[in-house]
Amino acid sequence: MLIVLKKDATQPQIDELMENIRKAGYSPDFLPGAQRTAIGIRGNKGYIDESELGLNDAVKEVLHVTKPYKLVSREWHPTDTVVSLKQGAKFGGNNPPELIAGPCSVENEKQVFETAEFLSKLKVKAMRGGAFKPRSSPYSFQGHGVEGLKLLRKAADKYNLSVVTELLHLEYFDQVLTHADMIQVGARNMQNFEMLQRLGKIQKPVLLKRGMAATIEEFLLAAEYILAGGNSQVVLCERGIRTFETATRNTLDLNAVAYVKEVSHLPIIVDPSHGTGRTSLVAPLSRAAIAVGAHGLIIELHKEPSKALSDGFQALNFEQFENLCRGVSRYAPT
Asked: Is the pTM of this model over 0.70?
């Protein structure tokens, strides 16, 4: 529920109203804004009877939030949230699309530093890289763990980049938190509710990927867990879903980008690498993603994809990525 306040509401009236809400057993959130000032009510398990709330003359109207997710909805927060990384990347609002790029897996120091130097020259502000790799096969390369995190941090610091990396296991929570500027929740962990609740208690950006079989509602409810814990710095990521189609690794759901922008204030980016699983499709789907309004892209990049230890079949080489960088922004909606 949202209680919209009159423009001339006094502070004593607002304080009284919030105290009445607390007495009724709910949690009030004061939501100031340029277009309206409101009080959001959380903690209800069903419909709230307005007579419980001790409404006073400060109230303009009462709106019942219809979505099962509240904090991520535009009903609750009508203006766009912008999530910023320390090296200057800004996701959301009217900011130009941002790129995050780097190898699927951190393989060695030479690879990471060459990639960081290359991204820096292209003025890309964020580097991705997997230190812990969730793989379908137990025999595939699983990553270098904490040593991989250290390499990412060292290279990023040298070339003034932000680090985006996945938190795979809660046992490494503190190490990932120390080395990363944005913590990625992978598709397999989208409904790891213990992890989401833990990320809600920190003040560091989170990149939340959609689960491979998750509905959009389930995706947004996963983000709700993080916001409910107090961390509003969430960037959503559409990375393709599993369908009956086998020509591509996944089916990239660009409907989700346009729809999420309608119903949520959170920024959303697209992963065309996992969304297609084919190098040849990454560039056209990147352009399509930006055209429907994605706030950015996260792309797998490798100097020699044929020698990559993981997912080389969907990675761009340096030349392909540079060509993509030159033209992708012009497809952004005006």
From this structure: yes
